[in-house]
Specification:
- The protein has 9 helices and 13 strands.
- The protein is α/β, with parallel strands linked by helices and 300 residues long.
């Protein structure tokens, strides 16, 4: 069963088309990344999933049961604009939102302590929200979203405001939730975070899908055209090769970008005949590189 299905969804605000004929299928039990620059249409799409705003056309189904209004107890939503009561303590906040989400009293007390430990706020449990740093506030917002153990978590820019240590903590928690068979949809403009976390991705630009599918399968469709080299010998001849587009030095290595439809083995054979090759690493295109390429094609 799919967790979410969007079919030909459109949404405009005045003359601005925020989401343009978007069709997406999110399988259950995966981490699904909605990727794209700010203003691409990610937040608008998530708000339509949550029935905060309505699409102009098209339809949305969640767990095959229809709209979010019918299955709210099975979902959790963390919006980009965080909203917690500043005068409540961390523990009071979790208790309040857990009660709203109808977590039974005995179970709620247990979950509150588990989440306080999980997000590493034990020393701040009785501090007011207004005393928390931005990163702490962000982690508490996540705990509030997930305290009812929803089957579907929808997270809008969950890494915003987090330092590298807490980004890793958040990724570990998301991976743990996924391992429990839950579905996570997250939007981000940080391609490298999505690359390490997501099973499937949807890339959006100007409200349109430019790429959608399983991350591993997506990468296999694109021929790698960058080779990382560590060699002994003079490499000046590389600049004269017709199939070499550019050369950059990255610390102790050279990165050679090949022209499209060039087999990297051609470069290897040329190198082997002239220098000693210590490292020859064919680099898969990153999500960032793929997005820049595909977004550029869309703009044209």
């Amino acid at each position: 069963m799919n967790a979410v299905e969007l079919n030909s969804v459109c949404k405009s605000f005045g003359q601005v088309c925020a989401v343009d004929n978007l069709s997406v299928t999110v399988p259950s039990g995966c981490v699904y990344g909605f990727l794209g620059p700010n203003g691409a249409g990610k937040t608008t799409t998530l708000r339509m999933l949550m029935n905060i705003i309505r699409p102009d056309s098209g339809n949305i189904r969640i767990f095959s049961d229809g709209t979010i209004s019918k299955i709210k107890h099975r979902t959790g939503y963390m919006p980009e604009e965080r909203g917690l009561y500043r005068k409540m303590t961390v523990r009071e906040t979790l208790k309040y939102f857990g009660a709203i989400k109808e977590v039974k009293k005995g179970e709620l007390a247990k979950r509150i302590e588990q989440w306080i430990e999980l997000i590493k706020l034990s020393d701040w449990a009785d501090k007011k929200v207004e005393e928390l740093s931005r990163g702490m506030h962000q982690k508490l917002q996540f705990a509030v979203t997930a305290i009812n153990a929803p089957e579907l978590l929808i997270l809008d820019e969950p890494f915003s405001g987090l330092d590298p240590v807490n980004q890793e903590l958040m990724k570990d928690i998301i991976a743990k939730i996924r391992a429990e068979g839950k579905t996570i949809i997250l939007s981000t403009h940080l391609m490298h975070e999505a690359e390490t976390l997501c099973d499937n991705v949807l890339m959006i630009n100007h409200g349109r899908a430019v790429l959608d599918g399983n991350l591993r399968e997506i990468k296999s469709r694109y021929q790698p055209n960058v080779v990382s080299l560590d060699v002994d010998g003079d490499t000046g001849f590389l600049e004269q090769l017709e199939f070499v587009e550019s050369i950059q030095r990255r610390k102790e290595r050279l990165e050679v970008r090949l022209r499209e439809n060039t087999d990297p083995q051609e470069l290897l054979m040329m190198l082997a005949s002239r220098v000693k090759v210590r490292v020859f690493e064919i680099k898969q295109p990153t999500l960032h590189e793929l997005f820049l390429k595909l977004a550029g094609q869309t703009d044209e």
